[in-house]
């Protein structure tokens, strides 16, 4: 079982394939498993590395203030990738993983060859009524302590039109580590990366599903701020787009990496 022992904790990861390193980082409360369609596809041409961030899956526990969570997770992965000797990498992050990827690229610019941000955001300040309402809804961290059966019912209803996403999101909510998911939710509740994103110089791809206007708005803000970036909007897709429309997603990512 591949484990990196770094920063006083353990980071579980899986690797598939050989060649240029492509690191894929999962969403909130999820694990490396949510990247399976991409691992199967890109493992034929890249060394795909999928870690479980601290506080998720088989990795160590989160036990620090919310304000330190993302920084500590970035340190963990930087140390793990250094141990593997694969730097620099192409870095992909979905949703929470996209927030992580932005900060990681800012903190460790020499470690990142290209950046892919999916269904994510860079600024959670409630600057509009729509953003205020969304923040109020997504800040209800106690939902992670609801019975798993209720969370699964929600997942199956919300993702009914996307079978692969429905299956994986249902698994995520069954296996989520509630207290640590709440801590990570708190960590992203006051994100504002607008000051440093213009300093990111690596080629950047943004991908977002078109199912919600606010999701597109958030991602457009990210790519507008990062030089040398572009945004791809997937039709009939929602967070996580890599599972809602895996074939479209893989094609767009493949073209970008080439």
What does this structure look like?
The protein is of the alpha/beta class and 258 residues long. It has a single domain, classed as Rossmann fold. 42% of the residues lie in helices and 18% in strands. An eight-stranded mixed β-sheet has the order 1-2-4-3-5-6-7-8, sandwiched between helices. Helix 8 (213-225) links the parallel strand 7 and strand 8. Helix 2 packs across helix 3 (96-107) and helix 5 (148-158) runs antiparallel to helix 6. The two termini are 31 Å apart. The mean pLDDT is 93.
Helix segment tally: 10
- Silhouette: globular
Q: What summary fits the major beta sheet?
A: 8 strands, mixed
What name does CATH use for the topology?
Rossmann fold
Assembly of the depicted chains: single chain
Give the SSE string: EEEHEHEHEHHHHEHEHH
CATH architecture: 3-Layer(aba) Sandwich
The overall average pLDDT, rounded, is 93
Unreliable spans are none
Number of strands: 8
Distance between the termini: 31 Å
Strand order of the largest sheet: 1-2-4-3-5-6-7-8
Count of discrete domains: 1
Strand content: 15-25%
Decide which structural class fits the backbone.
Answer: alpha/beta
Q: Report Rg.
A: 17 Å
Task: Please give the share of residues in helix.
Answer: 40-55%
* Assigned CATH superfamily: Alpha/Beta hydrolase fold, catalytic domain
Broad CATH class: Alpha Beta
